[in-house]
Amino acid sequence: MVNNYFTLKALIGEIRNDVVGSTIEACYTRVENTLEVILSGDTGQSKVLVISCKPRANFFFLRQAPKRHTGANVLRDIVGRTILRIDVVVNERTIVLGLRGEKTLIVNLFGPHANAYLVGSAGDLEEAFLRKGKRETPAASLTGNSLWRGTPDEFERAFENVIGTPLQKLVKLIPPFSGELGKEAFYRAGGEVLMKGASSKATRIGRDIALSLFESVTKMLDELSRPVPRIYYDGGDPVAMSTIGLHYLNRFRDERFDSVNLCVAAYSVNAERHEGDVRLRDDLTGKLSGRKDELLRTIGKIEADISGNREAKYRMYADILMAHLGEVQKGADSFVEAGTGETIRLDPGMSGVQNAQVYYEKAKKARESYRQASAREEELKKELAKVEAELRNVETGADLETISMMSKEEKAREEARTPFREFETSGYMIYVGKDAKNNDELTFGFAKPNDVFLHARGVSGSHVIIRNGSREYPQKAVLEFAARIAAHYSKARTSGIVPVAYTMRKFVKKAKGQPGAVFMDREEVIFVKPGIPL
Predict the structure, then answer these.
(1) Could you give the CA distance from residue 419 to residue 431 in angstroms, rounded to a whole number?
(2) What dihedral angle (degrees, nearest 10) is formed by the CA atoms of 158, 163, 167, 170?
(3) pTM of the predicted structure, to 2 decimals
(4) Residue 411 · residue 403 · CB < 8 Å
(5) Tell me: the pLDDT tens digits for 1-41?
(6) Torsions phi, psi of 359, nearest 5?
(7) If we measure between CA atoms, which residue out of 22, 122, 31 comes closest to residue 78?
(8) What does the alpha-carbon distance between residue 272 and residue 242 come to, in Å, rounded to a whole number?
(9) How far is CA 199 from the centre of its chain?
(10) At 442, is the secondary structure helix, strand, or coil?
(11) Greater confidence, 305 or 387?
């Protein structure tokens, strides 16, 4: 109830003598959605009214002004004016500061709609602290609301005639009894079950409960007239601020304060710290969840590639051809093994032995791809297990020190990523340069001798590197995957088919005087359609 009417009423009563008669030295903002109004008084010591219009953190309190104040100046027309009065609108969350020169500063603490307005003598809106799109008319909120008054029987009848949930009915009769006060009233009237049921239309309030609720509200109003401010904590995290005892929060530790103003100021600091901790935890959870999903997708693709490993099939084709060389007809485009009916595609321009050698070479490349994919899969599964463990730790309430350490590690991991575009297929990492300088860094600083270099032929474009752990080229599917990316990141990206040259990085030389330009030796060419393979 930090921005509840009863809290604001008690707080304004405490700070009125310090505020009225003081002159506004400056008005600025240095924290998002937070206004700071510097006041000078007879004592010569400046103070600051802190007005937080954050959607989930509305605060208003007075504290000592910092020795130096910097920030963006706002509501400039109030600077130099003397504050003649300060009040809170009856039963509302609106504070009104009357200024010399027939100006009024109105502060509405309406949750996500919180704002501060400068209003002229005719009630016209001159300036708003936050621009929220819709032009508001703050003067309309200065009328206030009266509390319901009457006997217990009259309360029962009035409660019955109001439409809504039990909690909504209570708020309509007594507007400030929303939030913590509403919960407390129902808790005192009927315990936790009634408190939880107060938000449901299905909950019926009989005469006995209605009379008990009337007694609870009456007693609470008396307590609110004699505030004893306190903050409830769950461990080190603030749960609620109140000016009376909240019985439904008795399981939590509470800290009491000598004034409502000091209590609100302390709660604001603790709440903002807690909000920062929550943001840190949520941010880390989001990053870890995103990395987990990415790892699962990559592992799934690798598993699909491994399951489709064709090494055994290619080797079988080669063995069949070698066993039936006398039966392979010259110029044939296929061979069918008698008995099994296995059909093997052939290159008509090659002999049976040459076709067999092609299949042996394909089997060799498939075996190497399988080895790299399996190694990469094992590496990614270890990383996945670590990420899942970290995510469980965060979600099950790791302490702030652990969260902070993990966040720093995650940030360091992100910063350690290469400055290149990254892709992956069949266990092969593929890196793509972003500009001429980045191309040079990728090819001549990052790539290893047996990595595969690709570039769209005859046009400018990105360098593409396939990280390769073998002296042999990867299988054709990997080369085509990388070649399509090279074509996509080139001036030929709108062409139907693009020739892409490739060779081992050790056969690429840097051309002098032109960043990104190279000479290639022992190059081969593959024709592909530009695009980012899914």
Answers:
(1) 9
(2) -30
(3) 0.60
(4) no
(5) 899 999 999 999 999 999 999 999 999 999 889 999 999 97
(6) -70, -35
(7) 22
(8) 17
(9) 30
(10) helix
(11) 387
